[in-house]
Amino acid sequence: MASESDLDGLVDSAREELRFGLDVNPPPFEELRGRRRRRRRVAVAAACCVLVAAVAAIFVASNPDNSETVVAGPGPVEPGASVPIGEEPLPTHLSIEGDAVRGAAVTLTVEGLERFRRQPVELTITTIEPVPTTSGGDRTGTFTLPPAVVDERGAVITKFVVPNALSGADDVIPLVPGDSYLLRINVAGGEVLLPFLVVAAELDHPYVVTAHRGPTECGAPPLEIDFDGKTWVPDVPDAFPSGVDSFDGRFTIVSDQAARFERLGEPAAIFSPGAGYSC
Amino acid sequence: VPAVDEQIEEQELLSFEWFYRSEYAAMVRLAFVLTGRRDLAEELVQDAFAVCFQRWGAVSGYDNAGTWMRRVVANRCVSSGRRHLTELRLLARLRSERPPVPAMSDGSDRLWSVLRGLPKRQAQVLALVFVDDLSVDAVAETLGIGSETVRTHLRRGRAALAEGLSEVSDGE
Question: Against a cut of 0.90, is the pTM above it?
Fold first, then answer.
């Protein structure tokens, strides 16, 4: 065994060699800005690999005699798209009715789960991989969707509001429009992973949202719509009857400073950006 | 006259660029020791800086942003998942030119090679002490573990390193 002094001497000389032998110059600062797009592309590719493996695993687990074959993988799921993630005999599809914009209500349908009829399903949106957090350490962000059950057709249908952020222990991990996440489907001890793409809101496009009365003790406005990372408040709050806590409707952003909120049978209300608040 | 927001953004950009230039080489040295490959080390470090840039508003407020960066780099270097992703990115970039492999003596090569074969935490602790000359307390803060734990990893790591180096020598 090398002695302590031998080791210290070797470490000293190796450190010096490293300092002078590894001639490193940082690439131009501007190059860093382009890296995020590359990271996204590779992350999506990796997610597809994970997906293929996961779907294959769940199929093998539910089909021990291996009498059938599976499977193909998709790209990120575009809003409104129906994407096959497997070939016969496991034709699982994910479709999203509505756009996956933060704050918008969407209906998510997963079909092809005939093997799991009447089984409870746990649906979770997660980051593709652990991400660095402000409190230190890397964590996987998660958001659990409302509980669901596979119906007689072998489908799971659930409605939910796309969150602004995922939670990772004590950290808040923002959802970023344009980034891909995973929709994790846990059923009967197995797991399927599907890519889930969050998109940014577009101008002049109606989205299904809910206007809420926020906690006024925290400085919240009397009524607000939290949409795509921004708080919107009505120009005329009195247009909304008191005693009602939430109002469903269609929300259309017409400019940076104005949006239209339409409820069934009611005249459109104009909303403007509001100030943030916190408790 | 630029708006106040623009001035703040400009100052943040400047402070990040200064941080990037001043810490880049040290981070690559640390990553090189933990990965054994210069191209992978640079890719991992640039990726870590890209993350740092996105979060610079928060990271720049830390007592020591360098400590946060070292933790991110050290963790990325020993995380097999992240290394695979980084390898994928390297392939995707299709660069024909590879950075030159640093010329090291046989002794240095052996030292870093044996270090990389140690358990992940021991390798991280030894790399931070050997490469950056960090104190036990600084390593503890960097990795987010206790000082006593660092001392234990250091003691066991040094013993394993000495033994590993002897085995390599005997094998020759």
Answer: no
